[in-house]
Amino acid sequence: MAIIVKESMHNEAAFILKTIKEVGFDAATVSLEHGRKFVMETQDGAIKFLKETNSKSADLNLFKDGRNGTFVTRDFRPDKLKNFLIKAREMLVLTDADPAATLPPDNRLSPLPDIDLDLIDRELVNSKKNAALEICRQIEAGARKVAPEAITVEASFEDGHYATELVNSKGFCGFKENTVAMVIAKVNIKDKNGKKQLGADYDFVTHFSDIRDFTELGASAAQRGLDMVGAAPIATGDYPIIVDARDTHMLLSEMLMRPLAGGQIYRKLSFLQDKIGKKIAPDFLTIRDDPFIKRGTGSEPFDAEGMINRPMPVIEKGVLKNYYFNTYWANKMGCEPTTGSPTNWIFDLGSRSGKEMAEKAEKAIYITDFNGGNSNPLTGDFSKGITGFLYENGRLVQPIANMNLACNLGQMLLDLEEVGNDPFKCSSIKCPSLRFKTMKVAGK
Amino acid sequence: MYDMTRRDFLKGAAAAGSLLCMSAVLPGCGKAPKVAAGPAPAPGSWEYGPLFGVSAEDCQKVLQEALKRGGDFAEIYFQNRASDGLSLEEGIVNDAWATTDMGAGVRVVVGDQVGYAYTEELTLEALLNTAKTAALIAHGSAVNGPDLLKPVKVENRFPITYLPTEWPIADKMAILRRVDKAARAASAKVEVVITYMQSTFDQVLIVRSDGLVCSDARPRVSLGCTVSVRSGERVERNSFSLGGRTNQEIFAGDAPERVAKEAVRRAEICLEAITPPAGEMPLVLAPGESGILLHEAIGHALEADFNRKGVSLFSDKMGQKVASELCTIVDDGTIPHADGSVSVDDEGNPGHRTVLVENGILKSYMHDRISASHYHVEPTGNGKRQSFRFQPIPRMTNTLLLNGPHNKEELFAGIARGIYAISFTNGSANIGQGDFVFYINYGYLIENGKLTSPIKDVNLVGNGPEILGRIDRVANDFAMPETASGYCGKHSAGGSQRVSVNFGLPAVRVSKITVGGRA
Are B63 and B93 within one domain? Predict the structure, then answer.
């Protein structure tokens, strides 16, 4: 297996940039990415799938006579690269000039932060593939202990090592790398009526030593399946809503990330248009974008354009503070760029977990999974399938499925009543459980 | 992340906008393309060997290496993909992109076990190393690779004259400008107009340990338009696109203007939309795009990998009633130029028309090689993969509900309050439970048998067998979506895979479904 070598990536990126200049482009960013990945999946004790891969690619953001385009190639042989670039130039010069398409401003290209983000686990650099079968068997054993009658138990282990060398024609040169490991447990259960139910759980880390106990993970997946046995829709109505921490990042991607994207703002296609400095949520909601969390799955020193990342408030005491403007959208808006995409989102925490909220609720639907659905970032209209539990007087009444939650996202933000203390660690969106006022839930 | 780059936005718009064009190449292309490139190569033989720089002997050596530790079967899947796109916004073509991607995946199969590896470097040494890695799944003695490779002629379902990726840029830009102009002229309410064209050409060579060799050429184009419209304080957006497995000839005649006008028409309907209702009520699905019902309610659960593992709710239902007797559902990979079609699938099996459900009775699953072997049936041409980086798995092609006996008027009769769903953006399904959802882009309220107010942005929720059992009217106006096809994502070993699919159906009535609105 090839090993990621910083020096050779640097040299290769520099060669690509040199060739780009020789072909006649005025400016360019080269993002060279190398990666390796290992995957093992087992079912009922046997290996069912094994995959090992290496990959590399170069994303080239090219500028010529005020025109801009993005080109991707994986063939860096000098003659092939040159031919690819000549074709790219021929395509680009036929398009129209756009003065907003520029490299990032100089003041955002240095200095690189002198922070160790601790994103590399030497164990994972070399891959834990020799331990993978035992890991999967431990996951399966944990699941079987809780659900011995499961139809099937599946486990998977995956690890990878990824690196990016980013250089541009303004002299920027940055390198970032990280390792990842992921484990998944899936348990298929049949209830006494013959209805099948899937229980699943997972973990995702940058360091192997941080991963959850494998037996416990398998047991958790099985328990999640068993807890949902007998799930059925309940009557359509207005219910107070609690969203479990592991699902809040899905909600937030619809509620905030899409509407805060620079393109949506410039095009006036966001319900959060013109809301900077305005109250969009209660005082207790504070979210900051922090790219420098040690071992954070969203941590990185610079963004996709090479702009140096920096911590940024998103919502402060309920007031919207920033949009996500890369260089292009910032130029369009006539403002300074922030960054192109979220890194880690960190929340001011409350005092209770989602489960504790449910166990104190007079009546609530505790959502543990979203199923499909969508939202309209322009209007905030939101409609998604849900599964979870109905609680009454602090007691679990029944699991629910085949139901739908609908709301307007702008109103939902204002209707937030509580932020939990249980941020979900597997996501870069480290959001805790959230409790809302009543919302329309459709069922029977 | 969402819409953080212009290119990402366009990709998202193309995927979400989406559902499909089927039709064969339109006649009467306005003008001949000024391309230097010759006709697209016909698939079917060793023609692509030189493209990938491999000989038959090389492939035999690689397959021999793949089977060095034993195994039932091995294959090499070579792929070369060229893609490009242009977009127009604020009156200028201000974004261009292009990618090239070439590589080969090697798969070794032992029973239902799969070893997989790929390489982006097509030297013999790299291919042998890739085969060695894939072979790690096996633990037996070496078996012989193929003594003789037998090229097989493929029936080309996507014949084209010129490659979509070599269509002149100036001509592509002219089409985009026509869409933009037509959208702005269509209504004074139009504010934002974003127009894009994407072109792809895939060349595939499959070499199997049973000796079969085939190559395939797969073009694809799409032309889309997203608009926002304003009326007072109210703003809405919508999209429309045309496309298919063909080239830009499909955009001949007034197609650019039609794309623009339809996007504007849909957005203007949404300006009048009321808050959709919540709760159980009758549903009438319009012909065409509503085929997403089949895709989510039964299609995924009939993909045979879920059934051979016993996790699908249909795994023990073969020969049993799984839908209303009005339902005959087929998966048809043979429709010319349709996005879901295959000349050969990604395992080298020809496209096929498979009856899945006949008069409500379950007749067949959709198979790849592994599941066909498990069930002792012939493969059904459903082994598809996202690219050479992935192993093939059972996927839908074009999933269709055939015409029924009713007139469309009969579908609305007697409905006091219900939903008429016309256009959709996305859906998903839980395979074991059979629960599914799909999201309405726009439709109408039915009141006393008549269409009244438009509705939009609402999810429909149901359980597959329950909903299919509640289909009590099927009209005789079968259609496939006119819009450009979307993609379907499916979780599989090694990661989620995205492939293009399509569907179609006549208007149908479901006596009761949960509508996820707010009113």
Answer: yes
Contact B113 A374 (CB under 8 A): no
| Overall domain count for chain B | 2
* Rounded CA separation A61/A68 (Å): 7
Tell me if A406 and B517 make a contact (CB, 8 A cut-off): yes
Domain with B349, as residue range(s), is: 278-516
Is residue B19's pLDDT more than 80?
Answer: no
Integer angstrom CA distances of residue B369 from A96, B107, B310, B372: 49, 12, 17, 5
How confident is residue A4, by pLDDT bands cut at 50, 70 and 90?
Answer: confident
Same domain, B351 and B250: no
Looking at residue B428, its pLDDT comes to 87
Q: Give the closest-approach CA distance of A339 to chain B in angstroms.
A: 9
- Residue B45 is predicted with a pLDDT of 56
Is residue B215 classed as helix, strand or coil in its secondary structure?
Answer: strand
Superfamily designation of domain A6-227: PmbA/TldD superfamily (3.30.2290.10)
Indicate whether B107 and B233 sit together in one domain.
Answer: yes
Question: Is the same domain home to B266 and B394?
Answer: no
For residue range B284-307, list pLDDT tens digits in order: 999 999 998 899 889 999 999 988
Q: How many CB atoms lie within 10 A of CB A297?
A: 19
Q: Are residues B238 and B263 in the same domain?
A: yes
Question: Do B153 and B168 lie in a common domain?
Answer: yes
pLDDT digits (tens, 9 = 90+) for A216-235: 999 999 999 999 999 999 99
Contact A371 B433 (CB under 8 A): no
* Residues A419, A284 contacting (CB under 8 angstroms): yes
The domain that holds B171 is classified in CATH as: 3.30.2290.10
Report the C-alpha gap between A414 and A434 in whole angstroms.
12
> Which residues have CB under 8 Å from B275's CB, separation 6+?
B455, B517, B518, B519
Which residues of chain A are in CATH 3.30.2290.10 domains?
A: 6-227
Q: Is residue B439 part of a domain?
A: yes
Give A294-319 pLDDT, tens digit per residue: 999 999 999 999 999 999 999 999 99
Q: Which residue of B has its CA nearest to A341?
A: B4
* B321 plus B457 within the same structural domain: yes
Instruction: Give the sign of the dihedral formed by CA A274, CA A279, CA A285, CA A286.
Output: positive
Q: Which two tokens stand for residue A183?
A: 């484990």
Name residue A314's amino acid.
V
Residues B236 and B312 placed together within one structural domain of the fold: no
Does residue A104 have a cis peptide bond before it, meaning omega lies within 30 degrees of 0?
no
pLDDT for res A253? 86
- Strand-pair partners of B475: B406
> ω into residue A111 within 30 of 0, thus cis?
yes
pLDDT of residue A150: 93
pLDDT at residue B29 tops 70: no
Would you place residue B46 in the very low, low, confident or very high pLDDT band (cuts 50, 70, 90)?
low
Residue B38 falls inside a structural domain: no
d(C-alpha B192, C-alpha B230), whole Å: 10
Closest-CA residue to A51 (of A4, A5, A1, A9): A1
* 381-440 of A, contacting B, C-beta below 8 A: 381-385, 401-408, 440
Domain final residue, candidates B239, B271, B303: B271
With respect to residue B430, please indicate whether it lies within any of the assigned structural domains: yes
CB-CB contact of B394 with B305 (8 Å): yes
The last residue of a domain, from among B271, B287, B307: B271
Confidence tier at B28 by pLDDT (50, 70, 90)? very low
Say if residues B475 and B508 touch (Cβ distance below 8 Å).
yes
Task: Decide if B518 touches A, using CB distance below 8 A.
Answer: yes
Residue B35 belongs to a domain: no
Contact A150, A226 (CB under 8 A): no
Contact residues on chain B for A70, CB-CB shorter than 8 A: 5, 7, 95-97
Establish if B119 touches chain A: CB-CB under 8 angstroms: yes
